[in-house]
Amino acid sequence: MKRILITGAAGFLGSHLCDRFIAEGHHVIGMDNLITGDLKNLEHLMQLERFDFYHHDVTKFVHVPGKLDYILHFASPASPIDYLKIPIQTLKVGALGTHNLLGLAKEKNARFMIASTSEIYGDPLVHPQTEEYYGNVNTIGPRGVYDEAKRFQESITMAYHRFHGLDTRIVRIFNTYGPRMRLNDGRVIPAFMGQALRGEDLTVFGDGSQTRSFCYVDDEIEGIYRLLMSDYTLPMNIGNPNEITIKDFAEEIVKLTGTDQKIIYKPLPKDDPLQRQPDITKAKEILGWEPKVGREEGMRKTFEYFKTLSKHELQKTEH
Ligand code: NAD
Ligand code: UDP
User: Fold this and answer.
1) CATH architecture of 188-213+242-274+294-315
2) What's a single GO MF annotation on this record (predicted)?
3) Domain ranges of the chain
4) Is the CB of residue 188 below 6 angstroms from any atom belonging to ligand 2?
5) 269 lines ligand 2 (CB under 6 A)
6) 182 CB under 6 A from ligand 2?
7) 267-296 pLDDT, tens digit each
8) pLDDT tens digits for the chain (319 residues)?
9) Does the C-beta of 97 come closer than 6 Å to ligand 1?
10) Which three-class secondary structure string do you get for the chain?
11) Which atom number of ligand 1 is nearest to the Cα of residue 10?
């Protein structure tokens, strides 16, 4: 049995990772300060002997007693409205938090993985994005706090790998969706589904010609798991290359939810990337991984989840 520390455990991806490692028979220590996460994502694990929860801010010194085999650093605000609201914490969790956890990994001789992001490519001039592309990021723009924290996180991780010989993994995650996303976290899928459930119009930003490529959470977790278990130490894209414009996507959501909501247009946020699609050649060749869940099936499962939450979450937005 391995002992694994997962930061950001009460969040969307962190909680699914906890489930995966528990299902594999390991001991999981989840760590979170609950700044954007929610303990209800972990409540089904709390009674297990093989699960511990530490309420802790990883930008402060991190101490975990006993051995650790793997550390997965997934703590970070991840939605644009979150990191615009808490820009300093976003920079700190990527920079100071990563430094603290690298120190812990070195002390425990643990394999260390960071959750990097397609955002390190910024508003990309290369399409689809390969891992070799250096990116096009506005350092001082509103999204810069997230993008640069993640770029620093990659740099310091590679420095520990090269200088200290630490065993490291870097996953560049592209837009992922599924159950346990926060209904009002501002990302496009919960935003559209929340609007459909409340009977509001769907807000497309800009003219809706910008593209994204959405990956269902089960596929993403499988890719992350395989990368962690591989011996590949350079950054790897994990995402679904099926690209769609946000306007077409809004139309799909109207069809899926069976509502007759109108689509309305709002200004495009500053530095919103115009196109995004992962090149997953490396993941296919090295991990034998590719996504299996199509958008229709994934969106249906996600909508079912939001429907079960809707009353509670909709009440919350009224206060
Ligand atoms: P999320 O907001 O649901 O989860 C992040 C978790 O980190 C939350 O539970 C939050 O409370 C916790 N956290 C934040 N700062 C912390 C701190 N200082 N100390 C301890 N805990 C802290 O977001 P998510 O979508 O699950 O994203 C998880 C990770 O994956 C993030 O690092 C994000 O950058 C990365 N990522 C996600 C996506 C995606 O599409 N979901 C895409 C690219 C990268
Ligand atoms: N978006 C939108 N309406 C919304 C929320 C988001 O049109 O209510 C757009 C947003 O401008 C972006 C895309 O949807 O072009 C994806 O946004 P999200 O915040 O989900 O992720 P990211 O921009 O980080 O990829």
Assistant:
1) Alpha-Beta Complex (3.90)
2) UDP-glucuronate decarboxylase activity
3) 3-177+215-238, 188-213+242-274+294-315
4) yes
5) yes
6) no
7) 999 999 999 999 999 999 999 999 999 999
8) 999 999 999 999 999 999 999 999 999 999 999 999 999 999 999 999 999 999 999 999 999 999 999 999 999 999 999 999 999 999 999 999 999 999 999 999 999 999 999 999 999 999 999 999 999 999 999 999 999 999 999 999 999 999 999 999 999 999 999 999 999 899 999 999 999 999 999 999 999 999 999 999 999 999 999 999 999 999 999 999 999 999 999 999 999 998 888 999 999 999 999 999 999 999 999 999 999 999 999 999 999 999 997 566 665 653 2
9) yes
10) CCEEEEECCCCHHHHHHHHHHHHCCCEEEEEECCCCCCHHHCCCCCCCCCEEEEECCCCCCCCCCCCCCEEEECCCCCCHHHHHHCHHHHHHHHHHHHHHHHHHHHHHCCEEEEEEEHHHHECCCCCCECCCCCCECCCCCCCHHHHHHHHHHHHHHHHHHHHHCCCEEEEEECCEECCCCCCCCCCHHHHHHHHHHHCCCEEEECCCCCEEECEEHHHHHHHHHHHHHCCCCCCEEECCCCEEEHHHHHHHHHHHHCCCCCEEEECCCCCCCCCCCECCHHHHHHHCCCCCCCHHHHHHHHHHHHHHHHHHHHHHHHC
11) 9
Options 3.80.10.10, 3.40.605.10, 3.40.50.2000, 3.40.50.720; CATH of 3-177+215-238 = 3.40.50.720
Ligand located closest to 92 CA: 1
Q: Which of 121, 146, 160, 216 is catalytic?
A: 146
